[in-house]
Amino acid sequence: MAQRMAGEDRRRQILDAAVRVFARQGFHTCRVADIADEAGVAYGLVYHYFGSKEEILDRIFLERWNVMLEVIREIDAGDAPARAKLEGVAGFIVESYRHDPDVMKVIIVEVTRAANSFGRTHLEKIGEAYDLIAQIVAHAQEDGEFKDTVTPKFAAMAFYGAIEQVLTGWIFDLLPSGDVEFDRAKGLIVETVCGGLDATPASAGTV
Amino acid sequence: MAQRMAGEDRRRQILDAAVRVFARQGFHTCRVADIADEAGVAYGLVYHYFGSKEEILDRIFLERWNVMLEVIREIDAGDAPARAKLEGVAGFIVESYRHDPDVMKVIIVEVTRAANSFGRTHLEKIGEAYDLIAQIVAHAQEDGEFKDTVTPKFAAMAFYGAIEQVLTGWIFDLLPSGDVEFDRAKGLIVETVCGGLDATPASAGTV
DNA sequence: ATAGGGATTGACTCGCGAGTCAACTCAGTG
DNA sequence: CACTGAGTTGACTCGCGAGTCAATCCCTAT
């Protein structure tokens, strides 16, 4: 069935199929046969390219997460105000979801929100992201842009938690999603965490 | 081995053992035999009291979650300012964790953060909590206490996401935990989401 | 005392699905 | 054209663990 193909292309083909299957059925629920079928490839070939079912999930996660870490590092290296930096981070994550919802769904649902199931694999990698965000907050606190009532780590968790929860809302249809919502969310997440919900004189209040 | 006992007591005994086992090994990783052993009870007895392994998890989740929903409803029914209401919600969740970390760990790690694995069971129950929080926000927006730049649902997700992420940080030792941290967290989560991170004239800035 | 029946036991069944492997295909090479 | 080895196939193995069930125990009622 499957035509001969260069190793890397076939690898990608299986990886992409796995993303679709994981997103649709979930990692635990799907069988390796489902991935092979989706890729239009024989069962055994999956094991020719990957050592195990779990390794496939690892690749999907690491491939994307490393990109994100790099982006956050670049953002933090710039000298924009912290709020703009956080907007950059939120924006990148939202755009990632817009661009490829399946990949983000798999990463969040099967890895990020499931750090236990796999005996805490990836916990360190995930923690790197928290640390980078905490870094941004710490710098802002030093500059007086953010108040220092909370520890940077704590703020980072709150910020990331808010983003992930919104993404989760989109994934499970608990929150309306679409291009309009994506664009608004980018700013609103930051506005909520930085500006707060309180009606302040500084922000244009309703009444 | 196990002495005769009234039905409900035995039920509790198995349920409590399951909480410890789920917290220690994770729902998927543990075997039903582990639960029976932990409870000091024969394998088959578990199935005398529960229809399936999953039903045990269901009970653990629902038992606690329903209490929380009730508490949130009561809080919202009062006429305290929204910030105090949210502090009540955050406080209850933090206290729940302090009081019985294992139960909260199981609920968060195996149910709340794993709403996919079980084919979206409980998603509705979980959503009820979001809705109740959104309710609080909506009221506050009507009263002008909160600005209405964000939808109540969105704010609820951000708020709940922040709490859950902090709990997750404690569970996985990504964030320092202890009585001092618990007490501080109650206020800080709300302060972060309501007051924001920004250094404002209203709050006592650092510099 | 003794029958009845719920509580308790744990060996056994049974299906599932990850991972293996021996056979086959075929593009490239000399 | 024979030969090689990477690419490909899918039937098979094998361990695991959820759920079953017939036997046994022991409390309670008569």
Topology:
The structure is a homodimer of 207-residue chains.
Chain A: H1 7-25, H2 32-39, H3 43-49, H4 53-77, H5 82-99, H6 101-111, H7 123-142, H8 152-171, H9 179-195
Helix pairs in contact in A: 1-2, 1-6, 2-3, 4-5, 4-6, 4-7, 5-6, 5-7, 5-9, 6-8, 7-8, 8-9
Chain A binds a DNA duplex (30 and 30 nucleotides) through helix 3.
What are the key terms here?
homodimer, 207 residues, mainly alpha, Arc Repressor Mutant, subunit A, Tetracycline Repressor, domain 2, 2 domains, disordered C terminus, DNA-binding
The CATH topology of the largest domain in chain A, please?
Tetracycline Repressor, domain 2
- CATH structural class of the largest domain in chain A: Mainly Alpha
Q: What percentage of amino acids of chain A are in beta strands?
A: under 5%
The appropriate CATH architecture of the largest domain in chain A is Orthogonal Bundle
Determine the N-to-C terminus distance of chain A: 66 Å
Shape of chain A: elongated
List the quaternary state of the chains.
homodimer
**Uncertain spans of chain A, ≥5 residues at pLDDT below 50?**
201-207
Structural Rg of chain A:
20 Å
Q: Given the helix and strand composition of chain A, which structural class is it?
A: mainly alpha
Helix count from the secondary structure assignment of chain A: 9
Which chains share the greatest interface? A-B, 63 and 63 residues
Into which percent range does the helicity of residues of chain A fall?
A: over 70%
Mean pLDDT of chain A: 89
For the record, the count of structural domains of chain A works out to: 2
Largest sheet of chain A: none
Report the strand count of chain A. Answer: 0
